[in-house]
Design goal:
The protein starts with 7 loop residues before the first strand and ends in a 5-residue tail after the last strand. The chain folds into 2 domains: about 10-185 and about 220-245, Rossmann fold (3-Layer(aba) Sandwich); about 185-220, no CATH class. The chain is an alpha/beta fold. Helix 1 (about 15-30) crosses helix 8 and helix 6 (about 190-200) crosses helix 7. It is built from 8 helices and 7 strands.
């Protein structure tokens, strides 16, 4: 498929996990892909790996919690490729703890990285998308938005992502810009492996536990989430906006 031929896509937090899988999927479908990560070296390596398949890529280091840095990164993208068509806001962290143990620093870090960063990225991207009257924004939420023990900060941020998504769809819709969110359930990534270790388990044991709670009786792989992101970022979803799609194997 070449759904993204001629399109320029930016994916944040794209050096690993869901972000890397999404960047790879968009590139496979013809997009010029900008891999953004806090660590410039990791971003460049990931971009080079995707570029080895023949895709046009660029790796950029950017602290997405810094509005000025985000604007500079978007300017670099436009200077390099002339436009910005797709933004996937995937960058995120966890700082899990029960409420009575959670520090203000951990609360603020998660809200800033997982929610405020999306505000910065969307604000910078719309400055390019509005004049060209075209854009696709996909934000990563989470099943944890419905509540998850030990994740008051993460759950609040991911619920906020859904409200931000719905509001931006209203504001940007008149300019032919769609804004949607994907809310994954348990995905086998480095982040969920770290969660397993936090609760005294191994990644394999934790995945087995999660699979037993899921109707499909397995956890997701990053590529499965990337496929849904790609759909929402494509013109196949041109009349879908303001939605949050849960991708969680049927869990309720």
């Amino acid at each position: 498929m070449t759904r993204f031929a001629g399109k320029v896509a930016v994916v944040t937090g794209a050096a690993q996990g869901i972000g890397a899988a999404t960047a790879r999927r968009l590139a496979d479908e013809g997009a010029t892909v900008v891999v953004v990560d806090l660590d410039a070296g990791r971003a460049e390596v990931a971009a080079a790996e995707i570029g080895a398949t023949g895709a046009t890529t660029l790796g950029l280091g950017c602290d997405v919690t810094d509005g000025d840095a985000v604007r500079a990164a978007v300017a670099r993208v436009v200077d390099s490729f002339g436009r910005l068509d797709v933004l996937v806001n995937n960058a995120g962290i966890t700082r899990d703890n029960l409420l009575h143990k959670m520090s203000p620093a951990d609360w603020n870090a998660v809200l800033t990285t997982n929610l405020t960063s999306m505000f910065h990225c969307c604000q910078a991207a719309q400055e390019q998308m509005v004049p060209q009257r075209y854009g696709r924004i996909v934000n990563l939420s989470s099943r944890s938005a419905l509540g998850n023990r030990g994740q008051a900060n993460y759950a609040a941020a991911k619920a906020g992502v859904q409200g931000l998504t719905a509001t931006l769809a209203i504001e940007l819709g008149p300019f032919n810009i769609t804004v949607n969110a994907v809310a994954p359930g348990y995905v086998a990534t480095a982040m969920t492996a770290a969660t397993a270790e936090r609760v005294g388990s191994t990644p394999a044991e934790h995945q087995q536990w999660a699979a037993e709670q899921t109707p499909l009786r397995r956890v997701a792989q990053p590529a499965e989430i990337a496929a849904v992101v790609a759909f929402l970022a494509s013109d196949d979803a041109s009349y879908v906006s303001g939605q949050t799609l849960y991708v969680n194997g049927g869990a309720r």
